[in-house]
Amino acid sequence: MLRLNKEEVHFLVTADMKKEVADFLEVVDAKTAPILECIKENRVERICFIGCGSSSAAGSTAKYLADKYTTLAVNAYTGWEFIDSMPVCGNKNMLAVFISQSGTTEEIVEGLRKAKKQGIMTVGVCDQREDNPLGMEADYVVDYHAEAMWECQLAALYTLIARIALERGESTEVMEKILSDMKLLPEVLGYHIEHFEEKALEMTKPLRNLKGFYTVSASSMVPLAYKEGVITGMEFLWSHGAVIQAGEFRHGPLEIVESGVPFLFLLPTDSSRAITQRALQFVERWKGTAIVLDYADFAMGLHADLAPFVMFVPLEWFCYYFSVVRDHNPDDRRYYGVVEY
Ligand SMILES: N[C@@H]1[C@@H](O)[C@H](O)[C@@H](COP(=O)(O)O)O[C@@H]1O
């Protein structure tokens, strides 16, 4: 097992997460208010979320929430997808929300400039508003000043969607509940940051010979499954990864189930729990390797659709120790930012 000084590993942003999220939640309403005004003024009916890597998974989670609870037309794009296929009819009554920690990612900057040229209203959700093209050029900016990009990006996007829904009089009860439960996030995240580390180490020790795992989930956690099971798995852990929608498990994935083939299940607590459990039970019955992280064990009473915020912490610990027990430093890169792409 690799000996690493946790404090020096950039991959792990958990240490300051609780405070960063608490600080941002204090100001997120003020930071999103001008965007809500713009939406009202321009009668915006269509929203595009655009991001790359982890930031694209945040956009897909926002699309999930908006699709489920509002009548808005919403799409989530990766950076190049947006550049190549952006809606040609969009103008002021369309909002393009660009999500990027750095605000400098090539295709985010290019997409932003292309959207602006077409007259689409643009929003940047990023760490800082200075020293990066997204923060400086977007029409509206929500800057969160944090390393905990996943949590803060989601906090910005959930707030935006919930406030739009309330303004439209759609799903008001659920939206109020989500907004009030979000205030409890720092405590819940802090608890899991403190309490899940040892468990993650124990869980991953027997997995040290694995080359990777398939991540299975449903509903609001599918983008998180992609973020952790594919992006984190490949970029940080140099392991093999793929995402399987629990409801699709029967249509292909089930045929590879056997001893030594690992599936990581992220169990939701909403109505998709049943179909996810069905896949899990199948893997257990046919002696596949099932690793389970159940939102019911972590939710601490929070709404089912806050699972992407909460489950990130146990997953982060799990991925960190999966890397460490496999003797890999998650900060190592051999290609990204090292060689020409
Ligand atoms: N290796 C990084 C990823 O870790 C990151 O998720 C992505 C988006 O970065 P940003 O959010 O700064 O646009 O860029 C690269 O692919």
UniProtKB/TrEMBL annotation:
Domain of life: Bacteria
Keywords: Repeat
Domain SIS: 35-170
Name by which UniProt lists this protein: Fructoselysine 6-phosphate deglycase
Gene: frlB_2
